[in-house]
Amino acid sequence: MVVTYYSVLIAWVINAFFDSFGSDDPWATEGTTGENATKYFLEEIIGTKTLGPDGRPTRMVGANVGYSALAWFLIWACLAGGTKWTGRITYFTMGLPIILLFVFLGKAISLEGSEDGIKEYIGRWDMEVLTDRPDCWSTAVSQIFFSIGVTFGIMTAFGSYNQRNEPAVKHAFVIAIANSMFSFISGFAVFASLGYLANQQGVAVKELPFAGFSLVFGTWPVVFGTLPGGEHWVRLLFFDLFLLGIDSGFGLLEGGLTAAADTVVLSKFSKAQLAAMMSFIGFLFSLIYCTDAGLNFLDVVDFYINFVMLFVGFLETFAAGWIYHLEKQLQEFGAPAVFAYFASNFGSVIVACGLWFGLEDVRFFCAELPCVIVCLLVLCQCSPVLLFSIICQTECCLGRIRSLGSHLGGLHCRYRLPSSATDGRGTWKVEWLPCHCHVRDCFPQRL
Predict the structure, then answer these.
(1) In this predicted structure, what is the pLDDT of residue 390?
(2) CA-CA distances (angstroms) from residue 75 to 45, 89, 238, 275, 442?
(3) 179 bridge partner residues
(4) Which of 386, 385, 366 is nearest to 376 (CA)?
């Protein structure tokens, strides 16, 4: 679903790239503002100028249909040669944008007023946003899911080609840190450009009307358009965005492609044939975004996919961490101990969310955020275990809960801890169980 509209995003960038060679584009026109550049992109590139007040589609934008077909062909070409071929292509589609990022960053911070934008980026902190706008939490998580590719099957697909003894945890850290660093450094380039635009217009950075979509297409093209040889900088920017888009496009399709190739029915087809079939079907689904109302459809689908991703992510981790070998846990420890341990972990999240988002003013209890987190961890992790221990009323069940804690951790790390943490039988004491819930993740050798 995501790649069907992601391909159209690529098509819009391709359209803007070729449009920059024309005489009507605003990118290198003297005096062009960010508002004009954004308006041109929306009305001329996406085609929204023919939309009526009801927002219903009235036509297909022919150029975007053709460029979408081109994007899907390139996605197919990147996958048809197999994993090794895709890996070689990735060196280019990811390596060159990294180099260009530092080129753009160096150019942006050299502009007058760039320091004002950077100050707005990292020099001002407003922690009240975390409580005044609770949706920023889910938005941030879904953005990370998007940028890394979590819950799309991408990591599972590419990881399935590795050896079983590959250091999965190390790779996960490398991917996550590299992704976040790329985004963090990109922020400097974007906000430095915003500082330059604000300086040119004589307004504060906060007063610039750019957010989301226009943050890219209303800033960088305008900034680069004011420089000597600006149209070439703008084309280089669009080419950079194209590489990033095509890289994400064939990565998203690889998740479904690998799963399809492992099925009995489709295993008889070659990877090139499967990629061709999936690309053609994806192209047909993407046509709805090639209408003049394509951006409206994209916003709606993208909004709800964010919540779907969070739910899928929860189900994946729940299945891997709790449901896997559940029958063995029930047989060995009994249902009361197993489900009590479940409640002690998931009850923590529920209670913590209720306290954090439900209270009018968290400062009523603690003045500082770290204090709130510590209190929630202690109260929410300890109390459910002790509560279920009291309810069960038996040392047998309490012992099973302690044993289950060691079993689910699966690490035998009790031998590395002080003897005060375990009883004479080698199981964890109940007061150490909340700590073990978090400490066990520090020992990845059993993954």
Answers:
(1) 45
(2) 21, 11, 18, 9, 38
(3) none
(4) 366
Residues 6+ away with beta carbon under 8 Å from 391:
none
Smallest CA-to-CA distance from 103 within 185, 200, 174 is with: 185
Please say whether the beta carbons of 352 and 376 come within 8 A: yes
How far apart are the C-alpha atoms of 280 and 383, rounded to whole Å? 55
- Using alpha carbons, select from 94, 145, 69, 71 the residue that is nearest to residue 247: 94
Task: Check pLDDT > 60 for residue 229.
Answer: yes
Three-state secondary structure call for residue 204: coil
Q: Taking the model in full, what pTM does it have?
A: 0.74
Cα–Cα separations (whole angstroms), residue 109 to 96, 179, 197, 219, 424: 20, 22, 12, 14, 63
Would you state the structure tokens that stand for residue 160, as one six-digit string?
């399935």
| CA–CA distance, 313 with 390 (Å, rounded to integer) | 33
**What distance in Å separates the CA atoms of residue 231 and residue 239, rounded to the nearest whole number?**
12
The yes-or-no verdict on residue 31 having pLDDT over 80 is no
3-state secondary structure of 428: strand
Domain ranges of the chain: 2-316, 325-446
3-state secondary structure of 262: coil
| pLDDT number for residue 142 | 78
Please count the residues of the chain: 447
The token pair that represents 261 in the structure block: 């190739």
Give the pLDDT confidence of 146-165 residue by residue, as tens digits: 778 777 778 788 888 888 88
What is the rounded CA–CA span in Å between residue 156 and residue 131? 35
361 class by beta-carbon count within 10 Å (0-12 exposed, 13-18 middle, 19+ buried): exposed
